[in-house]
Amino acid sequence: MGVLEGETGRGTFVRGAPSPAGLVVDLSMNLPPTPADADWRALLSKGVAGVLRDGDAAALMNYRAGMGARRDRAIAAEWLSPLLGGVSEARVFLAPGAQAALGALLPMLARSGDVILAEPWTYPGFIAMARLHGVRLAPLDCDDDGPVLRALDAQLKQTGAKAIYLNSTLQNPTTRTISAARRQGLVEIARKRGVLIIEDDAYGLLAPPAPAMARLDAASVIYLSTLSKCLSPGLRTAFVVAPPALEARMGDALRAACQMPTPLLSDLAMRWIESGLASRLLAGVKAESAERMRMARKLLPARARGARMAFIFGCRFLAAGMLTPMPPLRRRKASSRFHPIFSRWGQGCARMSAFRSAPRRTAQYLNAVCGR
Description:
Distance between the termini: 34 Å
Number of domains: 1
Radius of gyration: 21 Å
Shape: globular
Number of helices: 15
């Protein structure tokens, strides 16, 4: 059984046949697995009750000035310290998701028609956001360690790129992590050329700790982190760490684009971090992910086990590595488009070609603004 849906000029189709309860596997988004012992209902009930008990309920329903109180920024700085080391809370801003933060960053760094360099396989939300703002993306020349330094230096001169966008750890969608030596080389080139790196480190806390590029050179890197991939996307809380010289501009850009973090959700997130619950949940996510990868390696045939299987959640990227012939991580031609993964996955890597219908443009806009 399914749902009948008619389309003028095309006919009638059966859509959305229901699946037996418990058998639906959603590969459209990268979601952190629920830790084995996590009871979300109990955790949310206790957490929200604590926020209401210790705070002002009326203030939770009102506007807030700035992108996070000083105390919240200090808590966020401590949360990020395994990757960034010590960082001043004045440089840390809260945002209602990393996608919203990207929406604030892009118009701050580039205008319509400007170029930003990114990996040839890259986060589809960033492609959507760049398209929304008319920013052109040019593919970097990459190998297994990350962007090739000599080629990057030449591309910056050739394209006049305004910034470089990178997933430094467990890159979306290839799962590649930029090596320590390559990270050092990247920030040196960025410093020399006067170009900023947007380090979108959504998965940094899920992998073995590696110094973020923002730790190597705070002046050349805008750092993004989110709770969506390591705890839960429902918290809608992300962190932006600005270079010291851009603190004021970053705050203005985030306020213009996002107004403020969602008070109830950001207060809940800060409460979980401060209490240590977030760290316990993170450990549970990592343990569950490791168990899924162990099962995948055991159950999959030897040929599939040879594919890229580094992705911590063991779902969409793992499937991409097994089922899709991954082209070499190198730039093909200057005119080459960004590589797609299966289009049936709603958040699969999008092509750089324009959307051809109003409904798809609307979906593109909503995905761009409301993604992570």
